[in-house]
Amino acid sequence: MRSRHAIAAVAIGALVALAGCSATSASGTSPSTASGGAGPSSSSSAAPSTSAPATTVPSATVLSSAEQADLKLLHEQERAGLDAFSVFAARFPSQPVFANLTSSQKIQLTTVTAMLVRYGLGDPSTGLAAGTYAVPAVQQLYDATVAAGTSADHALDAVEHFEEQNLASLQAARTHTTRADLTLMYTNLELASHAHIAACTVALQHAASRA
After folding, report:
1. For residues 189 and 115, is the Cβ–Cβ distance under 8 A?
2. Looking at the domain 4-210, which fold is it?
3. Which residues of 68-88 are buried (b: 16+ CB within 10 A; e: fewer)?
């Protein structure tokens, strides 16, 4: 049986490939969005350029209202995760887990952003600075996560709670769609969230053994 780390690596690789494929426009060019602003997720993240073959971009009308709402919610949650983990990486530089989480979260956000582009949906974060979100529930989750990280160990606990909330959203989103591309993305995002929780658990165990 493969380890969690091996499964996570496969999931991240799949997310990178999916982001590249989803972001490819009908003309074969990858869209680029500005990332300037107040922090790591200001506006939206640019999808990486890949050699994936061109695919037809479906119309947003193909998606149900629930599918569209799920994509926008998950985009904001992934963005909130990137912002929160970046705060913790700067706040607790001696704990390398936060920098690793931030790098992983960038891939996840890029993947969801690319799917929004693929379906012609607007970026809900346009014009918003890092730490501010279009969805009130996501704003509350971000604020609570950052506030809870008063120490490195507390921040690890906060990340675990954040990922549990993200998993709940992903699992709900999977029940709202039968589309193969969305289901694949949600499944891989779930694997990545589980990997984040496992990384925090290991870091907490190491910290406890040193105490």
Report:
1. no
2. Ferritin (1.20.1260)
3. bebbbbbbbbbbbbbbbbbbb
Is residue 34 very low, low, confident or very high in pLDDT (cuts 50, 70, 90)?
very low
In this prediction, what percent of the chain has a pLDDT beyond 90?
67
- 56 and 116 in contact (C-beta within 8 Å)? no
| pTM metric for this prediction | 0.76
